[in-house]
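Example record used in the benchmark description.
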Amino acid sequence: MPSIKKLILQNFKKFDALTLDFDSGTNVLIGDNETGKSSVLLALDLSLTASRSRVEAIGYEALITQSAVHDFLKGSKRIDLLPKLIVDVFLEEGKEEGLYGTQNLIGTMTDGLRMKIAPVDEYHPAIVQVLKEDPQNFPFEYYTVTFSTFSGGPHTSFKRPVKHLLLDSSRIDSEYASREYTRTVFSFNAAVAERYQLENLYRRGKEGFRDDKLSGLNAKLTPYQFGLRTSIRSNLETDLIITKDGIPIEHRGKGEQCFIKTQFALRKHEAQGGLNALLLEEPENHLSHTNMKKLVEQLSNTKETQLFIATHSSHICSRLDLRHALLLGTDQKSGRLKALSDGTSNFFMKAPDNNVLEFALSKKVMLVEGDAEFILIEELYKKYADGKSPQADEVHIISIGGTSFKRYLELAKLLGIKVAAIRDNDKNYKQNCVENYKDCLYENSKIFADAENARSTFEISFYEDNQAACDDLFEAGRKTLTVQEYMLKNKADAAFELLMKKASDLVAPKYIQEAIAWIRE
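Model output (structure tokens):
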């Protein structure tokens, strides 16, 4: 199949410039809100579709980077400095000569498609006049969109070298989206000759109904007649719907629609060569956890179709292999998760659902290994951070299993995340907290634990530093267990009671104070 190898954007939406390299299989776009995940899918969709009307409906002013517009209006306003929007889609090289050329932003001789929004040359005198009369009036009206191949030839909507679909869960139930989906999937399943034959038969069937069934009524209405629409706005493709068990899928819930449409789109279509690329915008929206697991299983088994998935779901991101993730953001580089080791990638694929995506999108993280630490750490943080919350310092607190620290540290090293890992010494500080991590720490990471082996767990350290408060809260009614033993057997409940009733009296163990101070540096 003609897979998409690379995407280069110039002045598209939020991106002054962006280059992304893609895998031929699965590509998972991750990032915080407003980092451009949806823009990448939109750029691919518009370029592959080659629909002038769709681009014009969105509007040039909504597609061209606003910073480029502002820079031009603040500058000398020369015609040759007017910003141009370019989307270059690099394809795996094949046998179609019309795709092969060097007309791309890096001048490479290869197959590809280009979308360009630029001012029309013959309108230059008019543009000069517009800018002269109103220097702050950007001439969007004098721009046009063109679609071409890297050879310079035209790329038209009716001849697409890459068969693709975009499924956006935010508009999954809109009439337009449903119609476009059905029309596109119909074209994938029916050969051109078969499609034309069916459309002809459908039109003739409508004419037959008119001539046969309406003839009696129309005979009474001369010279007026009832007829049936047979235009392009009312033909087989516009009237087709997809049903499951006799129920139109647009009458089902949004989550079910998303699941059915994805499942149906990924069916094999040998006669037409199948679906080359599927673009999924936040497929987790509206899905139950069970259906999301089913969707992930289906996506993970997809071999014939190249996937581009924009998501905020840790489950989707980790289960589809973190090495397929492309991180979009202001401080991180895209595609850097490919360097994860097999062991770490497989760990996140098999481990229970986790906070891996929250972790990957963070700048600074405090890792803790238990519920008790997680419950108390935010209150302790405020006490030693002059009242500031972790969120105010852009610090995320994430609870993970103690055996997972090295996995998260490997991921953090790739992404440049500052990590303070807080753990128990388990009665051997040197072995468990120093030697154990000497090969996986990096400049921006540090292990924090109680250096006294006798203070082997958080609960023991915390009790010894807060004995009066703990005894006052838990000592009454103790018959067989000491207060410390009770806290060790009821870690989360004890921590929650301390937070609710003794928060102002609590003191953090020294190693936690040091972790808070270090992460804030």
